[in-house]
Each structure stands twice: as structure tokens, then as C-alpha cells.
Design brief:
Among the domains are: 107 residues, no CATH class; 80 residues. Helix content is 9%, strand content 30%. It contains four helices and 20 strands. The strands form six sheets. The chain has a five-stranded mixed β-sheet with strand order 3-4-5-6-7, with no helix packed on it. Strands 10-11-12-13 form a four-stranded mixed β-sheet, with no helix packed on it. A hairpin with a 2-residue loop joins strand 18 and strand 19. The chain is rod-shaped, with a radius of gyration of 68 Å. The N terminus is likely disordered.
């Protein structure tokens, strides 16, 4: 057993603890001196039995009178605790102390005990996490196939998406992209990207650009998106362009039209002269219409009572057998000045009035007799 120096030079071994008899200072193979400073102390004697001390006996330092001290053996059967207690003053069995120490965790530098209980369920859960797994990281995805109807199920945390039917970014770099408006062709950018489209406000005949045209950069030149229409074969709106070397159903522009080219009939697409139409109307007994005729040559007349004036209105081709129909303007008709009868003569129509004021007759129809 290892020895320690205790009190007044006495060699002792073991540990110091509290007992029912007082403070147990340790076990000694040589008893310390009974003195005032050791009063109340108890020790375990482990030396050989002698006339004064018995091996493995607990002794307590007592006094019988002032200045006299002695080691008195403690009664056999003193209370000895079998468990560690924070309040008991009894001796404790070595095995109780050993068991208590075995239940403790050794101190490890840099580590400490935690109040969290690590359960078997948590250990199993942790064992199921893949090495290198990260929280909130998506490692699976579900997408629809190219038809957009059947969901695709990932396998082994992966999914293969067939993009063969889709265009790559490089395939669509030449798509037309509207970039804005410039005032003139010369204001177009000097380094455009292929597919850039600009609207040009002013016309530029040199480059075939009309006002408001859009142009697109082909990679080497500006292409006018409106295209070019050759109108050289068309008649201009003001009618000044000559119709040369063009024919239509047998008619050549500039030549006199023969009477009756084509026929006045349903479904006929031929050209006809006015004379042919006139003849057709005569043959069919249809009415000939004359408009905006002047009635100003009024003369005194007594043909019809109450209407003292007659006006001859010349109309070429009218005969005495034709039947006239005169339509006055609403204003003139409401005056009541004009007779409800009229007559034809060779070369014209007679109308009758109570007044000799000049008027314009909007329409006269001639029904061939």
C-alpha cells in the first residue's frame, strides 16, 4: 500500500471519509499519536495486533480529562452504509464505492455529457441516410413525357428526359427579334445580330424601303420583310399609264370597239359598247333612263287647262310612239306646279307647268313603244 504523511508525521494509507464515529482519516499500519489535534478523528488500524491495538479495528481519538487523549476502539457492529449518500456520516463499503464509480463516465478532454437522450429509433433513422446526403436537396423529380399526358416515374433517384423532339438553343438563335424603330435606313445599327428586326420610319428608294417597312438582318444584309411588288402591268390610280399591247376578250386598248363585242346576257363576260346595251334594251322593251335634264325653254301653251306653259326636252332617239315617265325632284313635286301627264315627240319629251321657271329634272324614263 502507498503511504502518505498525515498530521504530525504519521504514515498512513487509504482515503479520508466520514463515518458514524467521526471523520475517518484513513487506514494506518502505525497508529498516530492521540492528541488534541486528532480529537474526534477515527482511523482504521491495519497493522499487526499488539497489546494496544487490534488489526482491522476502527479507533477514535477521545479524551478522559483535560489534557489526556487516547485511542478508543469503536464498538463492533457500527453502522456501515452499503450505498453512496450525500447526507449519511456512516462508513461506506468499498464495493458500494466501486459500484458507484463504475456507473460514472470517465472525463474526456474537450467533450461533455449531453442531456439529450439518443434513442434506438433515432439511430436507425440516421443509418438510413445516404453518405453525403444534404437536407432540403431535391434528388428526384417527376416530369411528363413529350405528349404531356403520362407521368414519368424516376428510377434509382434519377430520370432520363428525351429532348430529341425539342429545339436546342443554338437552333433558335436566328429567330426574328423585334428591336425597335429607327428614323431612316442610315440609322440602322452597324453591328446587328442575325434575326434583329427594325421598323424604318422614312422611305429609302435606294434600298427598296417604303415608309413604315420592317427590315431583318440576315447575317450579311438587311432584308426588307414587306417584299417588292412589280406594279408595272397595272393601271395607275390617276389613269395616266397607257394600256399598251393588252387585250381583253378580243379588245385591244386604243382601238375602236366594234358594236356588239360580247352579248348583253347572263353569264357573258365579254366587253360591250353602250350602243350594244342600248340596242339590247330596245329589243327587250326595257326603259331607257336619262338623268339631270334641263327644263328651261318654257313657252305659253293651252293643251291642258290650268297649265299654261310647256317645255320641250330634247332626247335623242325618242319617237312619238314611246311612253315617257318623268320624275321631278321632291321640292318641285310638292309645289303642285307640274302636270301629271307628259308626252313624247320625235326627238324629245314635253312637260307642262303653271310656272315658267327653269328647273332640272332628275330622271326621265323612256319605255319604247
Amino acid at each position: 500500500m502507498s503511504s502518505i504523511t498525515y498530521l504530525s508525521g504519521v504514515s498512513a494509507s487509504g482515503r479520508v471519509t466520514s463515518t458514524a464515529q467521526g471523520v475517518l482519516m484513513g487506514s494506518f499500519d502505525t497508529m498516530p499519536t492521540a492528541s488534541e489535534e486528532n480529537l474526534g478523528v477515527t482511523v482504521l488500524y491495519t497493522g499487526p495486533s499488539t497489546g494496544d491495538f487490534v488489526i482491522n479495528t476502527i479507533y477514535k481519538c477521545t479524551t478522559t480529562s483535560p489534557g489526556l487523549y487516547a485511542w478508543t476502539a469503536c464498538p463492533v457492529g457500527a453502522n456501515v452504509d452499503t450505498t453512496i449518500s450525500g447526507t449519511s456520516t456512516n462508513p461506506v463499503q468499498n464495493k458500494a464505492i466501486s459500484a458507484a464509480l463504475d456507473a460514472k463516465v470517465d472525463v474526456v478532454t474537450g467533450k461533455q455529457l449531453s442531456t439529450e437522450d439518443y434513442t434506438s429509433a433515432e439511430k436507425t433513422k440516421l443509418a438510413g441516410v445516404d453518405i453525403g446526403a444534404e437536407v432540403n436537396v431535391i434528388d428526384t423529380i417527376k416530369v411528363k413525357d413529350v405528349n404531356g399526358t403520362t407521368p414519368m416515374t424516376p428510377t434509382a433517384k434519377a430520370v432520363t428526359i428525351d429532348l430529341s423532339n425539342y429545339a436546342r438553343l443554338s437552333d433558335i438563335t436566328t429567330v426574328l427579334k423585334y428591336k425597335g424603330t429607327v428614323a431612316s435606313y442610315s440609322a440602322l445599327p452597324s453591328s446587328p445580330a442575325q434575326g434583329d428586326v427594325y421598323n424604318i420610319t422614312a422611305a429609302d428608294s435606294t434600298h427598296g424601303v417604303k415608309a413604315g417597312d420592317n427590315v431583318a438582318w440576315t447575317g450579311s444584309a438587311w432584308d426588307v420583310l414587306s417584299g417588292t411588288i412589280d406594279t408595272s402591268a397595272f393601271v395607275t390610280l390617276n389613269g395616266t399609264q397607257a394600256l399598251t399591247n393588252k387585250t381583253y376578250n378580243g379588245y385591244t386598248p386604243g382601238a375602236a370597239m366594234a358594236k356588239g363585242i360580247g352579248t348583253v346576257a347572263s353569264g357573258d363576260t365579254g366587253l360591250v359598247t353602250g350602243d350594244a346595251v342600248y340596242t339590247a334594251l330596245q329589243d327587250a322593251g326595257g326603259a331607257q333612263i336619262y338623268t339631270n335634264l334641263s327644263a328651261s325653254a318654257w313657252t305659253a301653251d293651252t293643251t291642258y287647262e290650268g297649265y299654261g306653259y310647256r317645255c320641250a326636252i330634247p332626247i335623242s332617239g325618242v319617237t312619238i310612239n314611246d311612253v315617257p315617265e318623268v320624275v321631278f325632284s321632291l321640292t318641285d313635286a310638292q309645289t303642285g306646279n307640274y302636270a301629271s301627264v307628259c308626252e313624247t315627240y320625235a326627238g324629245g319629251v314635253y312637260v307642262y307647268s303653271t310656272d315658267n321657271t327653269a328647273i332640272t329634272i332628275p330622271t326621265i324614263l323612256i319605255h319604247k313603244g
